[in-house]
From TrEMBL:
Catalytic activity annotation: ribonucleotidyl-uridine-RNA = a 5'-end dephospho-uridine-RNA + a 3'-end 2',3'-cyclophospho-ribonucleotide-RNA
Subunit structure, interactors included: Monomer.
Taxonomic path: Eukaryota, Metazoa, Chordata, Craniata, Vertebrata
Tagged with keyword Nuclease: yes
Segments forming domain EndoU: 33-309
Source species of the chain: Takifugu rubripes (Japanese pufferfish)
EC number: 4.6.1.-
Protein name, entry field: Uridylate-specific endoribonuclease
Pfam family, one: XendoU
DNA-binding as UniProt keyword: no
MF terms in GO: hydrolase activity; lyase activity; metal ion binding; RNA binding; RNA endonuclease activity
Gene: endouc
Region forming the signal peptide: 1-28
UniProt keyword list: Endonuclease, Hydrolase, Lyase, Manganese, Metal-binding, Nuclease, RNA-binding, Signal
Amino acid sequence: MAASFFSRLLNRFCGVLLLTVFLCGLNASRPVINQELSNIFNELWRLDVNRWTPGIDYTISVQARAGYVNQGSHVVRDHASLPLFSNVTEDKFLNVTTLSRFTKLLDNYETSTGVAEVVTAEERTEVNLFLDAVLETEVMKRAHKYLVSKGKSSSNLRLFKSQLHLIWFHLYHRDRNTGLDSCGFEHVFVGETKSGTEILGFHNWIQFYLQEKNGNLDYKGYKAKNHDLPDQDDHVLNLQFSWHGLVKPVGSAFIGTSPEFELAVFTIIFLMNTERSTTVLVNIDQCQMELVVIRHGRSLGTAYPKLLSSNSRHLRQHSL
């Protein structure tokens, strides 16, 4: 009788222990807000004077939710009859130094992987002028100061510029059967195609707008959960689009941010981690998002935001 009692007690204890371990495992798998990075990124956000203001500098029309599309499929239903962007203040492309120098870089690349890049003297000059302009912004100055404080960058501005060049503009093999055909900047800010079947990268709103304006890109609708619909003032969008006849089933991009802000944010994540793939959960302004950075040796392979919640909905949900 006593043995039976102790046996039942032991089984109950083991069951509770296993349940506790299981629940702890679930909690361990959930991403935790990186408060330090959230703090520095919000500083950069406030310093981003070249950021575009929704409803003033541009208007977006998110329209309807996009449907499911298999990777590599060219058949997609259009859930957005209108362009994503309208009423864009294009004077900023001419009057803001980082923007004007950024747009000059967008036609410097062969978008198809497997085609070796040929960099001209003029293109090298354009890259140097762009980095010089970025380094003069308060956004990148603050990012540089932070990285120096963490021992991740030299305080010497020339060495830091070389570090940025290595991360973003160093050419490498994305398709190993050919010459040097890719770099982090091309992949993230310009976009690439693979074997004429799929879109790689393409995570920048300015390139999105310019390609949409020129008729090369068609916005198909947003991607979001039912309880978190996007708004016209969202700073990050998960979206679907076609580009030169190819379909990106799910893409994502900051909206309205300056190139220097995106460079600063992703450079910090790249240098603060050594893993091949890094995902951090942060709150920036009213948005909660995951920021993903994947390395390609000492250079950047890809980097993009993934919106989880906007307009402070994650804060309201947490308070319930």
